[in-house]
Please model this.
Amino acid sequence: MEKPRILFSSARFGAKYFLDIYSQLHPNDLVLGEIFRRQGDNIKVLSDLLKVEPADIKRMAAEQPVELWKRLKDTEKSPNLIALVYYYHQPRESELWAELAETAEIYHLYRSNLFSAYLSRKIAMDLGRWQRHKNEARIEIPERSLDVSTKEAEKYIRERENEIQWCREYFKDADYHEFCFEDITLSDGTCARRLKEEDPIGVNGSVSQAISSKYAPIKQISNADLVNNYSEVAHLDGVRYQIPGLKDMPILQH
Model:
């Protein structure tokens, strides 16, 4: 088995899109979801692979994430794998982070425009829809249909900035690779090309079909047209991190 991979990200940062493209480039890899959130994910898959009862998988995810990771990466029957973890799935003091830094290849998917991420979250919550497939009809979102609280948006942006910077700093000396949402979502081919750049040997010659994600964005309207009080929050709408970069400073003061 190759060195296992962990994809660090946050909700509304494009992780499912990323993993969809990844799975097509690595068709023999085990692509896992949020296995370290307290409720667990891919319970049946992990239970079958590790020969452990589902209840024990959930317990390890909540209370013993390091034990879950060690069993997963060390099992003789485990294929090459990538698993998704959001910054907040485990507390900052968790021993899991040091274990991942030592034993995993770290992929970090972040968003540069965090105001857009905030709007994406707000729309998803209002609609009760977190994804849209390409074969589904476009969701019409009227212009000037959102009123945004500056205080609420700033709080969201600060929290995500702190998480991005924490991940960069904590894993900078590990086997660490960055991907920017605004970069990889230019097109399916762009995402595939970025993944190939990071792992040219692993994907070279292994894919014959055209790469195409099944996901499509829900929001297809500009932030300025979407937000009714845009003039009040326009200062939040912009790039906060260059592509790529480990030393960029956030605009907002903490």
